[in-house]
Specification:
- This protein is α+β, with helices and mostly antiparallel strands.
- Among the domains are: 66 residues, Arc Repressor Mutant, subunit A (Orthogonal Bundle); 88 residues, SH3 type barrels.
- 32% of the residues lie in helices and 21% in strands.
- The chain has a 5-stranded antiparallel beta sheet with strand order 6-5-4-3-7, with no helix packed on it.
- The radius of gyration is 22 Å and the shape is elongated.
């Protein structure tokens, strides 16, 4: 069994017995490899976002959160590669890291043969431009990208066009942007006592405070953008 097939089989084995654990020794015997190989495979799955954790003790082992994983996904190799190509358009957006994790989860959950075919197809696709070994200079800070989820007041440093930095406390409300333009964090600014759009590449530092942000609506008409230029995101 090659490593790709084994990673898939490990996830399915843990899913089948969840929430009960499987020890590294048991898994090593099941897949005819060493316990060290199992530990490396589990570590690779954890780093790719698969929710696996270790339970200590004599009857412990590795457990999988079944509620947070997908059964085998019927993506075709072409669909998986199309998602990977689309992912390359997300540099500088709030969603780059989450999209990469989601793609890894989907590929891990694919049928083993389809995942291998997708990898082979991907190796035939070449993109123009520099390799993305390092984040681009305007990569969005993770705390900015995740600003809407904790529902906390943020303290940010924000540079104006001249480079002068002010410190502000803001209540994040949404994002506005497109792959071909700058992205803005829309928030209630306590310094200006009003709604403001903060260009994310001008946010110089971010601190998440312990204060919960009060609920505020964000309507399209509040954004002061012509309706024909604005489209609200939908998932379907």
């Amino acid at each position: 069994m090659n490593r790709t097939d084994r990673l898939y089989a490990l996830v399915e084995e843990l899913r089948a017995v969840a929430p009960r654990p499987r020890s590294a020794r048991w898994l090593a015997g099941r897949f005819e490899v060493s316990t060290r190989t199992v530990e490396r495979d589990i570590s690779a799955l954890q780093q790719s976002g698969v929710p696996i954790w270790a339970e200590p003790g004599r009857t412990g082992g590795y457990c999988l959160d079944k509620a947070r994983t997908l059964p085998p996904v019927n993506l075709t190799p072409g669909e998986a590669v199309a998602l990977a190509v689309a992912l390359r358009q997300l540099d500088g957006t709030p969603f780059l890291a989450d999209a990469a994790t989601a793609l890894r989860k989907l590929v891990t959950a694919m049928q083993a043969g389809d995942a291998a075919a997708a990898q082979e197809l991907a190796e035939r696709i070449h993109l123009l431009g520099k390799p993305d070994a390092a984040p681009p200079p305007t990569a969005m800070p993770r705390l900015v990208a995740d600003a809407l989820q904790p529902r906390r007041v943020l303290r940010i440093g924000y540079a104006d066009r001249a480079g002068a930095v002010t410190v502000r406390e803001i209540e994040p409300l949404g994002y506005v942007g497109s792959p071909a333009a700058h992205w803005y964090l829309v928030a209630w600014c306590r310094l200006r006592d009003g709604l403001r759009a903060f260009r994310t590449d001008r946010i110089t530092c971010v601190t998440v405070t312990a204060e919960a942000a009060p609920p505020r609506p964000l309507r399209s008409e509040d954004l002061d953008i012509p309706p024909e230029k604005l489209r609200q995101l939908t998932l379907i």
